[in-house]
């Protein structure tokens, strides 16, 4: 598909609340276009609705996190991490992100050609460094995490479209993605283990998330859940 936005925009011309499209043979994909139905999905059906193939694939990278969890597990985990997203914390993150945007834009030269996607991915990863891992990873480790995350973010869209059996083929694309995914998980798990062992509060989001307690089990988040 060469014009993704054009294709999505063309669906509106059908004026149908639900439009079925084919993204992968044997898999049904339904695009919900009616605002009332979207509201019902997100609010009334949210706790029980399956998030679908995209989040199944993301779960391979992100683990059993609040982003990928479904149903009541998602609701419970969302409450668990809520303190990290309190108004005061969000305000602090906004200030950090604003500074990162300003620094990035200041580095651009008039007339310079930019790959917008690459620039935005880079900016997002820099924001991630300053908000989530600011006090938990040294520069060398974060550069490695940034490199691995860049590979995953660039390739995850293709993986979503591939049938499961294709992911097991010994192709360079699969090997690169699998190495990067393993690197991301290893880096985060190591950071979590070291932070838990030290008991220090580094002041970043990772440190705050590790203080969150599951209301049912009384246990903190694990690296897999973060």
UniProtKB/TrEMBL annotation:
GO terms for cellular component: membrane. GO terms for molecular function: heme binding; iron ion binding; monooxygenase activity; oxidoreductase activity, acting on paired donors, with incorporation or reduction of molecular oxygen. InterPro entries: Cyt_P450, Cyt_P450_sf, Cytochrome_P450_Monooxygen. The keyword Transmembrane helix applies. This is Cytochrome P450. It comes from the Bacteria. Pfam families: p450. It comes from Streptomyces violarus. Keywords: Heme, Iron, Membrane, Metal-binding, Oxidoreductase, Transmembrane, Transmembrane helix.
């Amino acid at each position: 598909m060469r014009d993704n936005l054009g294709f999505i925009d063309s669906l509106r011309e059908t004026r149908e609340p639900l439009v079925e499209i084919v993204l992968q043979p044997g898999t049904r994909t339904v695009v919900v276009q009616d605002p009332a139905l979207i509201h019902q999905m997100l609010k009334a059906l949210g706790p029980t609705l399956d998030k679908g193939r995209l989040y199944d694939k993301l779960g391979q990278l992100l683990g059993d996190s609040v982003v990928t969890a479904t149903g009541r597990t998602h609701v419970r985990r969302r409450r668990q991490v809520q303190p990290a997203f309190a108004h005061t914390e969000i305000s602090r993150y906004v200030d950090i992100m604003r500074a990162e945007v300003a620094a990035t834009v200041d580095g651009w030269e008039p007339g310079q050609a930019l790959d917008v996607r690459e620039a935005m991915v880079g900016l997002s990863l820099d924001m991630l460094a300053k908000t989530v891992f600011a006090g938990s990873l040294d520069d060398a480790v974060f550069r490695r995490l940034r490199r691995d995350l860049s590979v995953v973010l660039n390739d995850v869209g293709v993986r979503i479209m591939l049938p499961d059996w294709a992911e097991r083929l010994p192709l360079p694309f699969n090997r690169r993605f699998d190495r990067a995914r393993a690197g991301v998980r290893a880096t985060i798990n190591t950071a979590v283990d070291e932070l838990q062992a030290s008991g220090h509060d580094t002041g970043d989001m990772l440190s705050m998330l590790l203080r969150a307690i599951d209301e049912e089990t009384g246990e903190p988040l694990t690296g897999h859940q973060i």
